[in-house]
């Protein structure tokens, strides 16, 4: 075997060794940090729910469905917001919806009679910067604070929500997410 072949084998061996060590280190750090990531996500959700229905003072009861996540845990469908006496004062939820570019995740809240939207927030999206991405701005979000559920549609369709200019699909996606989940929760709570 020539010296250049030996050098190539040595280099390849070193690269394989470095790759194996890097993979082991990544695996070792993933396990302890994955639990902390789940805790951080749960805490973030509590904060968001509290912003949507502050009267609940962080008192939210999880409602589970029949489906389970990848780890075998039941999936939370929505949350019942409870007052200090344990009475239901509303419902909060997270809903994924197809947007103009990619799925977006919307958090929303509705009162206990399903008549008033308490508010909404877009948690993640990949909408076009300067257009659809404006769904996270206060000018759009504030339109959803304490509005009647039956007027939850674009103003061009007789509702009370003004679409973002040039981003009607993104605006409609937020409305669709809220309407879909509110209808679903109302049906489940009957």
TrEMBL record:
Entry cofactors: FMN
Topology class, membrane: Single-pass membrane protein
Pfam family, one: FMN_bind
Residues bearing PTM FMN phosphoryl threonine: 168
SMART domains referenced in this protein's UniProt entry, alphabetically: FMN_bind (SM00900)
Keyword terms of this UniProt record: Cell membrane, Electron transport, Flavoprotein, FMN, Membrane, Phosphoprotein, Translocase, Transmembrane, Transmembrane helix, Transport
Any Gene Ontology biological process: electron transport chain
Residue ranges of the TM segments: 12-31
GO molecular function, one term: FMN binding
Subcellular location field: Cell membrane
Domain FMN-binding residues, every copy: 99-185
One Gene Ontology cellular component: plasma membrane
EC number(s) reported in the record: 7.-.-.-
Family annotation (HAMAP family): RsxG_RnfG
Subunit structure: The Rnf complex is probably composed of eight subunits, including RnfA, RnfB, RnfC, RnfD, RnfE and RnfG.
Stated role: Part of a membrane-bound complex that couples electron transfer with translocation of ions across the membrane.
Family statement: Belongs to the RnfG family.
Identification of the protein by name: Ion-translocating oxidoreductase complex subunit G
């Amino acid at each position: 075997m020539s010296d250049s072949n030996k050098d190539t084998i040595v280099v390849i061996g070193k690269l394989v060794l470095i790759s194996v060590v890097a993979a082991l280190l990544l695996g070792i750090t993933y396990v302890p940090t994955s639990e902390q990531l789940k805790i951080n996500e749960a805490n973030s959700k509590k904060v968001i729910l509290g912003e949507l229905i502050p009267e609940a003072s962080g008192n939210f009861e999880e409602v589970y469905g029949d489906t389970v996540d990848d780890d075998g845990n039941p999936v939370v469908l929505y949350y019942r917001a409870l007052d200090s006496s344990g009475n239901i004062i509303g419902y909060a939820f997270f809903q994924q919806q197809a947007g103009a570019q990619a799925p977006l995740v919307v958090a929303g809240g509705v009162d206990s009679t399903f008549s008033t939207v308490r508010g909404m927030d877009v948690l993640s999206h990949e909408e076009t910067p300067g257009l659809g991405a404006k769904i996270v701005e206060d000018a759009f979000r504030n339109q959803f604070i304490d509005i009647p559920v039956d007027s939850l549609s674009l103003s061009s369709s007789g509702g009370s929500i003004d679409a973002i200019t040039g981003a009607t699909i993104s605006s409609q996606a937020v409305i669709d997410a809220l309407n879909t989940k509110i209808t679903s929760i109302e049906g489940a709570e009957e």
